[in-house]
Design goal:
Elements (H helix, E strand, L loop, with lengths): L2 H7 L8 H26 L1 H15 L6 E5 L5 H9 L4 E6 L2 H13 L6 E5 L12 E7 L8 H11 E12 L6 E4 L10 E5 L2 H10 L3 E12 L9 E10 L25 E2 L5
Helix pairs in contact: 2-3, 2-5, 3-4
Length: about 270
């Protein structure tokens, strides 16, 4: 079943407008990047870090892997992954300069700057060559992406054969749900989150070409939004892999420059940028 069929069957018509997407990006740069770590790393630290640990443990992340964190935000998962697998090269991709600048400071403080790269870019048009990464993670990002099917196809493209993908999202009900955020000055509309049912996400993963799709729910997290539904939701975890036609030979990680698509314009976030 294709996404268009799923959308039609589910009467899924409310999609973020371009102006709203831009407003959200600006809002993260101007405001959310300044308070995000307070909310997620202090106030909600046990929930967020626990969910990251669950994701990494179920992916079986080991040393020698080049990991891409799609929608890396302020780099919390990157730090945890770097400490878990000291030989990995970890790349963070995000659309918000403000969030990436916070991530840079966090990675420097954690002593991981030399094994990490931060790239300003779009999950729907990732500026990397195919088969560049041994693993991809994406936490709390899919609900913001206008075309999640395209983003998952891009994840498939940049993964190496046999590479693993791990997703973590807030769980929806039996059908899709639009979550309307408390009004904020940088918002041009109230549509912020679009939560997809577990079976939709599983279908999207299979449609993108992934194998071994599994999912489960775990933990509880407050919504902090005005919406119809419970004040807390469970986390939904999804795992899949890119089919392997051959075994990838072991190799040491390479500089991220070798993974950038030819002709792509990329802004790397660094102290010199």
């Amino acid at each position: 079943m294709r996404l268009s069929q799923i959308v039609e069957l589910g009467k899924w018509s409310e999609r973020p407008e371009a102006a709203d997407i831009t407003a959200v990006m600006r809002g993260y740069d101007a405001l959310m990047s300044k308070v995000y770590d307070f909310l997620t790393c202090w106030f909600m630290a046990p929930l967020i870090r626990g969910s990251h640990q669950t994701l990494l443990e179920n992916m079986g992340q080991g040393g020698g892997t080049t990991l891409l964190d799609i929608g890396c935000g302020t780099g919390t998962l990157m730090v945890m992954a770097g400490r878990r697998a000291p030989s990995d090269l970890i790349v963070g991709l995000d659309v918000s300069t403000g969030m990436l600048e916070r991530a840079l400071r966090k990675l420097e403080k954690s002593g991981l700057k030399n094994r990490t790269e931060l790239v300003l870019g779009d999950a729907e048009a990732q500026p990397f060559r195919g088969s560049s990464f041994g693993a991809c993670t994406c936490t709390g990002t899919l609900r913001f992406i206008p075309d999640p099917a395209l983003a998952l196809r891009e994840a498939m493209r940049v993964l190496q054969e046999g590479g693993s993908l791990g997703l973590r999202e807030m769980a929806s009900g039996r059908g899709p749900m639009v979550i309307r955020h408390i009004p904020l000055p940088f918002k041009s509309s109230f549509v912020v989150w679009r939560l997809l049912p577990d079976h939709w996400v599983e279908t999207l993963l299979r449609s993108a070409g992934f194998d071994g799709v599994t999912s489960f729910r775990s933990g509880m997290v407050p919504q902090f939004v005005i919406a119809m539904g419970p004040p807390v939701r469970r986390y939904a975890f999804f795992f899949a892999s890119k089919p392997s036609m051959r075994v990838n030979p072991p190799h040491e990680h390479q500089a991220i420059a070798l993974h950038i698509s030819q002709g792509a314009t990329v802004r790397r976030i660094s102290r010199e940028a």
